[in-house]
Design goal:
This protein has about 650 residues and is of the alpha+beta class. Helix content is about 50%, strand content about 20%. The longest helix is centred in the first third of the chain and has 82 residues. The chain is elongated, with a radius of gyration of 38 Å.
């Protein structure tokens, strides 16, 4: 009996259950290990690919401000070129005055060397204008210092004094260099022209020599490689834009950009252990995150004189990729580094990022390890639930659990939420698991709805913001007139549509004395009042061209209907009766001068603007408060000076 009791105590179903649980646990652990290994080795390449993709996107975002900087410098050089040519032509026509200004501004500091006086760097009032931040070095040269050179140097000084301050936050300095060993510079920090070596021959060095007609017959602008500017104490690169007139090399519009400025943009939010370089299309070094102090006496850094192993490896790699895509990733090209190459489109330069390979591997392994550990935890919990259910109710709960898991895997969240309550009447861990699935499904659905709502709201906000930005980008903030960008766009449109239009440039007479005596706030109010006057003109597009200068695009039909239209505009401004006792023109009130020309479709925008500007100068020379034009109405009534 005792033996039978023992047999009943060791009932077969109990042994089967234990064996079943043991086998389930054993096989589950085996499957878990295999799944973890597969998960790790499957997820690792994807994780590494995501890291590399993120780094590439990071680089592309970093290049945006750098490319904008280069584009802005290129545009500034064009502006400097055009302004210098206009000023040079003006000074040539007043060569006597230019020669007198040169003799007054410059002093001889040694035999054959003249420099701009120190007072014009510190700040001095001259001829009703403030000259500040300017220095110049007129070195030894075989060319005579005649009236033409003096006019050119005076034109360069005035042009840089006018434009240089606006660019001081973008570049280290702005300068106009000349092939006769002369350089005129605007800088807020360094009076380079006062400290340059008296025996310096700038054309002996590759920077200025590269702009000479003999060295650059195609007259293309160029960026130099990286070099150390001893006078400023910084690593820098230089952009040069040759300025030629009638086949003669007059000067170079050029700007210096500090290495620090480039690296600030290129290294924002970067890995500490990474290295960064910028190489031009010849492989010369433009910027680098780590440069030896021993190289300060070197000329432009290139593969011939910069023997840094990382740079030489990168240079060799780029030489093999002349026809490669714009961005490439290389794992073994440089020992121990992952190399990402990205071309800067506007310049066709190479931006190179070198990341330590060990760091990439470490980052790439984190996510697979997390997935494996997460899998271990989840499967461990499921094993406990299975163990508890096998001893009591196995089939139905597991089928239900498998069904819900399948629905979740297939993302059928609505089916999970919509299931009847009867299907959820389980106890213990299975109920918790099923409730968790249902909660997750609700959260997924709610999150999806919330995300869709946020996307819709953000899209609408972005569209509205873009609309406001587009409006602000074409309106002058002070006057409410359309700005220079709008003017350039509309003038190009008028030219392309061959529509008969008149371009008139207007300038407030003696505006600087007004500002000097009444104050800049009063000057701003005058600009606003004149702008409102121009805005009131029917059928006319009015723009703030710059400073106190305005532009009008007037349909020819308006002039045909009223031959004295432009004169009435001038009179309308004078009729505002804004007191101006310092007006040296024909009135003791605020007045404007105007120059107007026909917009001829075959002309370039710059040519038409220059023609109108010349007319404006003539109106100024006649005393202001008048119009100078060459326009004929359809009834053959001509505009001349008023």
């Amino acid at each position: 009996m005792e033996r039978r009791h023992q047999n009943r105590h060791l009932h077969p179903h109990q042994q089967l259950g234990r064996r079943l649980v043991f086998r389930i646990i054993l096989w589950a652990l085996l499957v878990l290990l295999v799944a973890s290994a597969i998960t790790f080795f499957t997820a690792y390449p994807r994780s590494q690919e995501r890291i590399v993709t993120s780094l590439k996107q990071d680089i592309q975002m970093a290049l945006v401000p750098t490319e904008m900087l280069f584009a802005q410098i290129t545009d500034n050089a064009e502006t400097l070129t055009q302004s210098f040519i206009r000023q040079y032509r003006f000074q040539q026509t007043h060569s006597g005055r230019s020669s007198a200004l040169f003799d007054d501004w410059f002093e001889q500091t040694s035999v054959g060397v003249k420099r701009l006086k120190q007072q014009y760097f510190d700040g001095a009032e001259d001829n009703h204008q403030l000259i500040k931040g300017m220095s110049a070095f007129i070195g030894k040269s075989d060319e005579p210092l005649d009236d033409e050179r003096k006019a050119r140097i005076v034109a360069a000084t005035l042009t840089l004094n006018e434009l240089g301050p606006a660019w001081s936050k973008v570049v280290s300095n702005s300068h106009l260099s000349m092939p006769e060993n002369a350089l005129i510079m605007y800088s807020e920090d360094s009076a380079w022209g006062r400290i340059a070596d008296e025996n310096l021959i700038m054309t002996d060095y590759s920077v200025l020599r590269s702009s000479l007609q003999s060295q650059n017959p195609e007259r293309a602008p160029n960026w130099t490689g990286l070099y150390y500017d001893a006078s400023a104490g910084v690593w820098t690169i230089t952009y040069q834009h040759p300025i030629d007139l009638n086949g003669r090399h007059l000067a170079n519009a050029s700007f210096d950009v500090e290495l620090g400025k480039l690296l600030n943009d290129l290294q924002t939010q970067r890995d500490v252990g990474a290295n960064y370089m910028v190489l031009n299309n010849q492989g010369d070094l433009i910027a680098a995150s780590d440069i030896s102090e021993n190289l300060k006496n070197q000329p432009l850094l290139s593969h011939d004189n910069y023997d840094d192993p990382l740079y030489q490896s990168v240079y060799g790699l780029i030489n093999t990729l002349r026809d490669a895509p714009s961005a490439e990733v290389f794992e073994n090209a440089v020992p121990g580094h992952l190399v990402i190459l990205q071309q800067i489109p506007r310049l066709q330069w190479w931006y190179v990022a070198l990341y330590p390979q060990d760091g990439i591997r470490e980052q790439a392994s984190i996510q697979p390890l997390r997935l494996s550990i997460t899998g271990l935890l989840i499967l461990g919990l499921l094993l406990l639930i299975v163990h508890w259910q096998v001893t009591r109710e196995v089939s139905l709960p597991l089928r239900r659990l498998a069904s819900v898991a399948s629905q979740m895997d297939a993302k059928n969240y609505q089916d999970v939420i919509a299931s009847s309550d009867r299907q959820w009447r389980f106890k213990g861990e299975v109920k918790l698991a099923l409730d968790a699935f249902r909660t997750m499904a609700r959260r997924f659905v709610n999150a999806q709805h919330s995300l869709e709502k946020q996307v819709s709201e953000r899209t609408a906000e972005l569209a509205q913001a873009n609309k406001r930005l587009q409006h602000l980008a074409h309106i002058d903030g002070l006057t409410g007139l359309m700005n220079r960008r709008s003017f350039d766009r509309d003038l190009q449109k008028v030219l392309s549509e061959h529509t008969p239009f008149i371009l008139a440039l207007a300038d407030i007479d003696a505006f600087k004395p007004f500002n000097d005596h009444y104050g800049h706030e009063a000057g701003d109010r005058v600009l606003q009042q004149v702008s409102q006057c121009l805005l009131s003109l029917d059928g006319v597009m009015a723009y703030r061209y710059g400073g106190e200068e305005f532009a009008l695009l007037i349909p020819k039909a308006v002039i045909n209907a009223n031959a004295l239209f432009l004169t009435k505009v001038v009179e309308k401004v004078a009729a505002l009766q804004i007191p101006h006792e310092y007006n040296s023109r024909k009135a003791d009130v605020v007045s404007i001068s105007m120059g107007a020309v026909m917009v001829t479709p075959d002309s370039a925008p710059a040519e038409i603007i220059n023609q109108a500007d010349e007319k404006l100068y003539k109106a100024k020379e006649k005393g202001g408060n008048c119009v100078e034009s060459n326009i004929n109405t359809d009834s053959n009534r001509a505009f001349s000076s008023y």
